[in-house]
Automatic annotation (TrEMBL):
<dbReference type="Pfam" id="PF13610">
    <property type="entry name" value="DDE_Tnp_IS240"/>
</dbReference>
<keyword id="KW-1133">Transmembrane helix</keyword>
<feature type="transmembrane region" description="Helical">
    <location>
        <begin position="49"/>
        <end position="67"/>
    </location>
</feature>
<feature type="compositionally biased region" description="Polar residues">
    <location>
        <begin position="268"/>
        <end position="279"/>
    </location>
</feature>
<feature type="transmembrane region" description="Helical">
    <location>
        <begin position="73"/>
        <end position="93"/>
    </location>
</feature>
<feature type="transmembrane region" description="Helical">
    <location>
        <begin position="16"/>
        <end position="37"/>
    </location>
</feature>
<keyword id="KW-0815">Transposition</keyword>
<protein>
    <recommendedName>
        <fullName>DDE domain-containing protein</fullName>
    </recommendedName>
</protein>
<dbReference type="InterPro" id="IPR027469">
    <property type="entry name" value="Cation_efflux_TMD_sf"/>
</dbReference>
<keyword id="KW-0812">Transmembrane</keyword>
<feature type="region of interest" description="Disordered">
    <location>
        <begin position="264"/>
        <end position="294"/>
    </location>
</feature>
<feature type="domain" description="DDE">
    <location>
        <begin position="184"/>
        <end position="308"/>
    </location>
</feature>
<keyword id="KW-0233">DNA recombination</keyword>
<dbReference type="InterPro" id="IPR032874">
    <property type="entry name" value="DDE_dom"/>
</dbReference>
<dbReference type="InterPro" id="IPR052183">
    <property type="entry name" value="IS_Transposase"/>
</dbReference>
<dbReference type="InterPro" id="IPR047930">
    <property type="entry name" value="Transpos_IS6"/>
</dbReference>
<keyword id="KW-0238">DNA-binding</keyword>
């Protein structure tokens, strides 16, 4: 004898409701742990469980709706799901425009106090990691090992994110604190091999070795030299008494277009200071196993130049007591630039 049992129409709502309760339970547990240890990433994970529970409850309510209403609510949910992605994209673009606009100096103009809120590690550890990376020829893994030796467990990828986020802001603040450069400028260019393509690093320094600016460009012609000179004149607001370059004719053509050809000088040995200024870049390039893209090279070299100029106290020209005083002053400048809000 065959009997047809009616399906249990309440089984699906009960199952979905149970799943919703489990998701709410996991949300409460992760939220409590996140608040206890101050973890932003764990708090973000707990929100995922809250979203899942909300969707489960919505499914329970939607079981009694018509097909048309279900289709409408599905379209609304699809739009809601796009909101986090759009918000992430907007945040990334805003950060890129705020911290990576290195051509027109807008970072220094819109500089604000640096805030370390929302990070699991205290500001002192973040600041020390950034200082170690820019001050010495170290890789991200080297910084990770140095912190581990001090009992601080942090991955090299975390150090990379700290450097990429806070490095340009600290460098912009350091550039604002530098004194007015000398009136003798040295300009030079050197090639870099990035992703199998040759690009040129244009650098300008003053008579004391202060790095005025660096610019990564794809050309080594009059237009590239003119772009560097215009950027320097706009950035510092005065014309140098002497502009010393190598024998590349592009410098002379660019100086002629700007009307400063009478201040331009070139010679075989006159530009040794600019030639030697490329040595720190070459050391970092070897340590980083070459730069990965022109954009990343521009961002790193701009920040590195600001830190290098701050701590370049001409040690070989001063006595030991004078060097200690200059070094302490450089450290005070760094501490002020990296200070949290």
């Amino acid at each position: 004898m065959v009997t047809n049992e009616a399906p249990d129409n309440g089984a699906l709502p009960r199952t979905v409701g149970l799943v919703a309760l489990l998701n709410l339970g996991y949300f409460g547990i992760e939220l409590g742990v996140a608040l206890a240890i101050g973890s932003v990433s764990l708090f973000a994970d707990s929100i995922d469980f809250l979203e899942d529970a909300s969707i489960n409850l919505l499914i329970i309510f939607a079981l009694g709706w018509t097909a048309r209403n279900r289709a409408r609510i599905g379209m609304v949910l699809s739009g809601i799901l796009l909101v986090p992605g759009l918000a992430t994209l907007w945040t990334a673009l805003s950060r890129q425009l705020r911290t990576c606009d290195l051509d027109d100096g807008s970072v220094a103009k819109t500089m604000h106090k640096i805030s370390y809120r929302g990070y699991r590690f205290p500001p002192e550890i973040i600041q020390q990691s950034i200082w170690l990376y820019f001050r010495f020829t170290l890789s991200f893994r080297d910084v990770e090992d140095l912190l581990a030796e001090r009992g601080i467990t942090v991955s090299y990828e975390t150090v990379r994110r700290w450097v990429n986020h806070f490095g340009p802001m600290i460098a912009a603040d350091l550039r604002k604190r530098r004194p007015k450069p000398c009136t003798t400028w040295h300009l030079d260019e050197v090639y870099l091999k990035i992703a199998g393509r040759t690009v040129y690093l244009w650098r300008a320094i003053d008579a004391e070795g202060e790095v005025l600016d660096v610019l990564v460009q794809f050309k080594r012609n009059k237009h590239a030299a003119l772009k560097l000179m215009r950027k320097l004149l706009k950035k510092y607001g005065f014309v140098p008494d002497r502009l010393i370059t190598e024998g590349l004719r592009s410098y002379g053509a660019a100086a002629h277009d700007l009307g400063i050809s009478n201040r331009h000088a070139s010679g075989r040995w006159q530009n040794n200071r600019a030639e030697n200024s490329h040595q720190p870049t070459r050391r970092r390039e070897r340590k980083m196993q070459r730069f990965k893209s022109p954009g990343s090279a521009q961002r790193f070299l701009s920040a590195h130049a600001a830190v290098f100029s701050t701590f370049n106290v001409q040690r070989h020209l001063t006595s030991a007591p004078t060097h200690r005083v200059l070094r302490a002053a450089a450290m005070r400048t760094w501490r002020e630039a990296e200070m949290a809000a």
